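Colleagues,

For the teaching module next term, I've prepared a clean inverse folding example: a structure given as tokens, and then the sequence designed for it. I'd like students to try predicting residues themselves before seeing the answer, so please don't circulate the second half yet.
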């Protein structure tokens, strides 16, 4: 069974290149490079020589629809190869923490399952606010930097004003679905992605709701899959990703380093993030050496 790993990349070409070389031994590799990453002609030649397919079409902004747009374009790009039956989405800051053969075999034997992290949006809060608000109200973080100080102030004011005005996209757009959230990273059969893209294209009001929401990457696929009664029964609820939701090495979630080695080795995850050359190089070396001995 042919499988593909799709990578959303926004920084550090060399790390992404090394990751791709590791994966391509068993997987087809497809990458979307954030348009802010201007690839050199040499970098493009290296990718093409190794048969690593890539596009660079969207200027991705955190929290904006552009993340989903880049994901959808990457999915469409990978779906062109009809021989690929199973698809994985990771970030350019991921690293495999099991052997490539073990990862491949696991999904070959479980290719009818949908590995997606899902939970209902009801009664869930993040950063002190109900995440239903992220869908209910209007945002445009493709034009406003949500992570800047002014962006954080705008976010609070925007929610307060829309609450006072009684804004409710759920009623205006008549989207008759139950909404789900979870990690954007997934491992799914081909039919799921084909269905999801077709569903979004045919349901314009749901598309418009997601396009004007905050962090739609954590809602769109989870919602579409869980509103399909057949797919819903096949969802495992575990996407086998390791992350530490703490502030570490200047990042939240944590940038992992050598101190996290035992946690990774004892995990049932297949991929972990975040990795950077600055902090994670020794961890990568240690993981790769351990996998050679297994």
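(Answer key — instructors only)
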């Amino acid at each position: 069974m042919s499988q593909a790993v799709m990578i959303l990349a926004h920084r550090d070409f060399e790390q992404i290149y090394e990751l791709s070389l590791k994966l391509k031994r068993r997987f087809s590799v497809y990458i979307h490079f954030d348009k802010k990453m201007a690839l050199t002609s040499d970098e493009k030649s290296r990718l093409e020589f190794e048969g690593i397919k890539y596009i660079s079409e969207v200027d991705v902004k955190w929290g904006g629809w552009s993340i989903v747009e880049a994901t959808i374009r990457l999915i469409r790009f990978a779906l062109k190869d009809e021989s690929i039956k199973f698809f994985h989405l990771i970030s350019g800051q991921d690293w495999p923490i099991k052997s490539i053969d073990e990862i491949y075999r696991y999904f070959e034997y479980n290719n009818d399952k949908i590995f997606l992290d899902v939970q209902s949006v009801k009664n869930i809060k993040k950063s002190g606010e109900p995440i239903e608000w992220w869908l209910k109200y209007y945002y445009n973080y493709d034009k406003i930097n949500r992570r800047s100080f002014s962006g954080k102030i705008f976010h609070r004011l925007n929610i307060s004003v829309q609450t006072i005005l009684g804004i409710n996209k759920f009623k205006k757009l008549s989207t008759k679905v139950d909404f789900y959230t979870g990690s954007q990273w997934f491992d799914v059969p081909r039919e799921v992605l084909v269905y999801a893209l077709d569903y979004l294209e045919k349901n314009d009001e749901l598309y418009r709701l997601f396009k004007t929401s905050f962090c739609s990457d954590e809602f769109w696929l989870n919602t579409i899959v869980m509103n399909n009664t057949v797919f819903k029964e096949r969802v495992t609820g575990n996407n086998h990703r390791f992350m530490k939701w703490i502030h570490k090495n200047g990042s939240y979630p944590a940038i992992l380093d050598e101190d996290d080695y035992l946690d990774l080795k004892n995990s049932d995850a297949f991929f972990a993030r975040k990795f950077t050359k600055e902090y994670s190089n020794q961890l990568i070396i240690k993981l790769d050496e351990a996998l050679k001995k297994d």
